[in-house]
Write a structure and sequence with these properties.
single chain; 12 strands; Beta-Lactamase; alpha+beta; 55% helix; Helix Hairpins; 18% strand; HAMP_dom; Heat Shock Protein 90; 504 residues; 5-stranded mixed β-sheet
């Protein structure tokens, strides 16, 4: 089994398909059937041809010996033996026989004295037998039938007795060999014909089998592309028809489930959007009141001031959450739009940090002002930078670093790369696949934090809206790194390259 697996591993993928396997299986079955049938037919035909030839020769040889034995005196002389041999040959002139007669030490042969093919075993068998003894031999690639026949006479009580005279016959079997070779050639041709028919039948069978399989593959691909209404035509009542029917039932059930999920998701999105919209007006009023109360908090007693501060902070967090939910609902509704403006990225980063008082908390590595300019939506890029840097400051350890560089993929494609790193514990393996999901908070200690769990999700949506990419990873020495890649226009990238001295 291990050998077969190892052999299959070296077979090209194109030859491992169902069509190839069907063709090979049919061919092997055809070859095995043709060879086995041919072998049986060959054995029976060869045995029949040789048996018939052997029986005919022995019968003719016995008839000839019986005819000359009557006239051969006992004991015979040398001339009597030669006469008997000549008479046997004369009666079978066209057979190509060679005859040898022996009686004791006397020998007579014709037409030649070459009888080396008579084996000692044959001679011993003839000396004790009362019937013909035969043997097939091959000399220099030519087949021969060797027959030894003792001459007997009837004694008292009509019992057969040996006379001591033995006649040997050597007959070439070239004709029989030609028949056998013709049978081998016919079997070979039949095997080739069977193999061709098997391949043709295999191709036809494979076509019939693969048609529904290919239809199933196309339907599966369309379903993977989102076309859940795809169905297969069910023909017949075989296993493939059952498979097509099962696929249709599965597709119908999946379509119903997905439709229900989409309906529930749409309801949830509408609910979030409606609730967020309804909360904005009272929140605006609450924020205005808390702003007024914050100004008077210093003149109030301590307990009242702390209570007002808690209300103000809660109102502020709720306002942020509602704004985030409104933003997410815009993305879900496809209503989010870019208001592009050409900006200097380095100056913009500095402005974002300064507006939030983070200049002394973040180490920056930025290109010189005027080097890297591109078209982005300033408001959305500000949200991206604020979320990433704020996340690093809240959940990481100093130093927090922000770097910017240009990465080229091809001569006409470049990216502005923004990296935010911290020196904290990093992101756990369990949290890494979900870090940009909505409402996800890595770690139980963050579930009650002021974060809504939407910041990184909004960051990813804003980056994708720009046609960019965002990713998170852990640094080898500890800490996390968030990387944002924004596509640069050719003119912006070329200007950045010229300013930094790189060839574009």
């Amino acid at each position: 089994m291990q050998f077969l697996r190892s052999a299959l591993a070296h077979v090209p993928l194109a030859l491992r398909g169902l069509r190839s396997r069907l063709v090979v299986a049919f061919a092997l079955v055809a070859v095995a059937g043709a060879l086995s049938t041919g072998a049986l037919a060959f054995r029976e035909a060869r045995t029949g041809v040789l048996q018939q030839s052997q029986d005919t020769v022995i019968r003719q040889f016995r008839t000839s010996i019986d005819a000359v034995a009557v006239y051969t005196p006992m004991p015979p002389s040398q001339s009597d033996l030669q006469t008997a041999v000549n008479q046997v040959l004369h009666a079978n002139q066209a057979q190509g026989w060679r005859v040898l007669a022996t009686y004791g030490s006397l020998r007579a042969s014709a037409p030649s004295a070459d009888f080396d093919m008579l084996s000692p075993q044959l001679r011993r068998s003839v000396g004790t037998a009362r019937a013909a003894v035969f043997q097939r031999v091959n000399v220099d690639g030519h087949p021969y039938l060797v027959v030894g026949m003792p001459v007997t006479y009837s004694g008292e009580n009509k019992e057969s007795k040996l006379s001591g005279l033995v006649m040997y016959l050597v007959v070439p079997q070239n004709t029989e060999q030609a028949y056998v070779e013709a049978m081998v050639s016919a079997i070979e041709h039949a095997t080739l014909v069977a193999l061709g028919l098997a391949v043709l039948l295999a191709l036809l069978a494979a076509r019939g089998v693969l048609r529904p399989v290919r239809a199933l593959r196309r339907a599966t691909r369309r379903m993977a592309e989102g076309h859940l209404d795809v169905r297969l035509a069910v023909n017949g009542s075989d296993e493939l028809a059952d498979l097509s029917q099962s696929f249709n039932h599965t597709a119908a059930a999946l379509e119903e489930s997905v439709a229900e999920l989409r309906r529930l998701e749409a309801q949830a999105r509408r609910f979030v959007a409606d609730v967020s919209h309804e909360l904005r007006t009272p929140l605006a009023a609450m924020s205005a009141v808390t702003d007024v109360l914050d100004e008077k908090a210093l003149r109030l007693d301590r307990e009242t001031g702390e209570a007002l501060q808690l209300i103000s902070e809660g109102t502020s967090r709720l306002s942020v959450l509602v704004n985030d939910l409104m933003e997410i609902s815009r993305f879900d509704a496809g209503a989010a739009e870019l208001n592009l403006d050409e900006i200097d990225l380095a100056e913009f980063v500095q402005h974002t940090l300064a507006s939030r008082g983070w200049q002394g908390q973040v180490e920056t590595r930025l290109p010189r002002p005027g080097v890297l300019r591109t078209r982005v939506d300033p408001r959305r890029l500000d949200v991206v930078l604020a979320n990433l840097v704020g996340n690093a400051l809240r959940h990481g350890d100093p130093p927090v670093r922000l770097g910017m560089s240009v990465r080229k993929e091809r001569t006409d494609v470049a990216w502005a790369v923004i990296e935010v790193t911290d020196n904290g514990p990093g992101i756990t393996e369990e949290a890494m696949p979900h870090i940009f999901e909505r409402f996800y908070k890595a770690g139980s200690t963050r579930t009650r934090s002021e974060s809504s769990g939407l910041g990184l999700a909004i960051t990813a949506e804003n980056v994708h809206l720009h046609g960019g990419r965002v990713s998170a990873a852990n640094l080898p020495g500890g800490g996390a790194v968030f990387t944002v890649e924004l596509p640069l226009h050719r003119d912006s990238a070329a200007a950045a390259d010229d300013a930094t001295g790189n060839a574009w």
